[in-house]
Amino acid sequence: MRKFAMILAAMMLIVxxxxxxxxxxxxxxxxxxxxxxxxxxxxTFSMTGMYPPLNFKKDGKLTGFDVxxxxxxxKRIGLKANPVTNQWETIIQGLKAKKYDAIIxxxxxxxxxxxxxxxxxxxxxxxAQIFVAEGNAEIKSKxxxxxxxxxxxxxxxxxxxxxxxxDNVKGYPTDINALQDLALGRLDAVxxxxxxxxxxxxxxxxxxxxxxxxxxxxxVSVAVNEGNKELAGKINEAIQSMxxxxxxxxxxxxxxxxxxxxx
Length: 263
Prior knowledge:
Blueprint: H1 2-34, E1 42-47, E2 50-51, E3 55-58, E4 61-63, H2 65-77, E5 80-85, H3 91-96, E6 102-108, H4 111-114, E7 117-126, E8 128-133, E9 150-153, H5 157-165, E10 169-172, H6 175-183, E11 189-193, H7 194-204, E12 208-211, E13 218-225, H8 229-244, H9 247-256
Parallel strand pairs: 1-5, 1-6, 9-10, 9-11
Antiparallel strand pairs: 2-3, 3-4, 6-13, 7-13, 8-11, 8-12
Helix pairs in contact: 2-8
């Protein structure tokens, strides 16, 4: 009789455990359904895959800063990461057509884009940055550029900024051309995108340094479909938790040797 009671008790524990797992699984499924995902259990996020070191293909596999940030976001929401690519020209249309759940592809939140999608809090900050040759202690801010030779991309918004700061502005076909001349001492300064300059310093070994504050600020954010507040909220929570526990800085240092969330 005692043996029968023990067997019965064990069977009851198994049944209760199964019910508990079923309830937990049901709750998780219900939470996932609220996120309105294109693929159950996965966060599918898009980028061009042609913007190193932020997102690019290596040995046929997507990698880069954006990919690692997206993968960590998915993990913290309790989803599998599913990075995909799409042409930049139609990347918002692809999101609206529900080909993917989010764009994590270095998209700046702008008022025009905000009319079509919802943006999360930024996951990095960029914008127009002044770069000088390494060791240059003379130029510390935009006020020090008066009369200096500034290199910029031709016909760019950065040229307009440079024209307001100096009467000696030199145009270049690419950022890298200007930054190379800066490292060689042919220019006093270059105004370009912060991430472009940081990457040139790290990847090409150019002896340059950023000085002063950003001349304008680009808040690079995750885009989700308009109205999907639940998913945007979960992504915001994930980004903040990454910042709080140091994971964000670790990923940023790996790719840029600096924390690109800081101005």
